[in-house]
Each structure stands twice: as structure tokens, then as C-alpha cells.
Amino acid sequence: MSMTRRILRSWRAPRAVMRDLLAAGLREDRAFAMLFVASLLIFVAQLPRLARQAHFDPSVPLDARIGGAMMGIMFLFPLFAYLIAALSHLIARMFGGKGSFYTARVALFWSLLATAPLMLFQGLVAGFIGQGPQAMLVGGLIAFGFAWQWGNALSVAESADAVVA
User: Is-annotated flag, keyword Lipid metabolism (predicted)?
Assistant: First the structure.
């Protein structure tokens, strides 16, 4: 199944999608690809907002804003994502989680990828409308959607039957 279909399906059946991803076996390349594509989509989502900010405040040029966003999202964010996934696994283990560091990574990376299309929409809102109640509403929906996706994925990742060999 393609990733686009999985993303759409994950909004209806997030646990089933997570089980399917883990059933593929230990695939660190696939986990990293999910994180990379999610980071790329999040970076692209920032471009309309950065262009708007550069237009209204030309003291910082657009290319400098894009360079900073690229550094933060494409290079630093993945490092923090690995750290957050490891911490989530350790916390889940304290509460009886049976998964592994790999399953926790897949849960976080998949949740980021599943919510990335919403982040693209939020980037358009921030770029065309700017900061305001609309952007806050979309941001809140993204936060709720990500928490829902990650909670469901992590519960499957830390269950006893999710241990990947």
C-alpha cells in the first residue's frame, strides 16, 4: 500500500496502520524515510509563512529565513525526533510497555508523517492570512491530530504483540 493511502487510512484506523507498519519487520531504512519525508513536508509548509514575513519585514531576507528553517527542520529536528522517541519508549517501559526503541521510533515518525499534510494546510493559512485566530485554530487541530495519531501508534508500538524481531 502506498504511503498516501496509509496516511488517509491512518485517520480512520490508526492502530491498524501501525500494526501493518510493524508487520513489515525491522526496517530502519523505512523509519528514517518516514522521518525524512515528514521533515521535508514540514519544511515546505513553512515557506509561505517565511515569504510573508520577509515581505512585511525585509530586514531579514527570504533566503536567510529559508536557510534557518532548513537548518532547524531538516538537520536538527530529526535528531530531536530520535531523542523524543527514545524518551517515549523509556517512559512507556516504566508503565509496562513491551515494545522496543525501534517501535517507538516508528510510532513517532509515522505520526509526524500522518499529520504533515495538515501542516501544509497550516502553512498556507499562515502564508495567506497571517497570524490570527484562523492560524491558531488550525494549529490546535494539528496538535490534537498529532497527539491522537501518536497516542494510538504508541499504544500499538508498546503492546506485547508489537515486538519486532
Answer: no
How far apart are alpha carbons 84 and 88 in whole angstroms?
Answer: 6
Please indicate, yes or no, if residue 2 is contained in any of the structural domains: no
What is the torsion angle, in degrees rounded to the nearest 10, for the CA atoms of residue 32, residue 154, residue 84 and residue 72? Answer: 50
Helix residue ranges, H only, the chain: 3-10, 14-23, 28-56, 62-70, 77-94, 101-128, 133-157
Residue 59: its H or E element: none
Q: pLDDT of 13-60, one tens digit each?
A: 999 999 999 988 888 999 999 999 999 999 999 999 999 999 999 999
pTM: 0.91
In total, how many domains does the chain have?
Answer: 1
DSSP state, residue 89: H
Indicate the length of the chain as a whole number: 165
In a domain? residue 5: no
Assess if residue 28 is contained within a domain: yes
CA–CA separation, 14 vs 151, rounded Å?
Answer: 9
Distance of CA 90 to the CA centre of its chain: 20
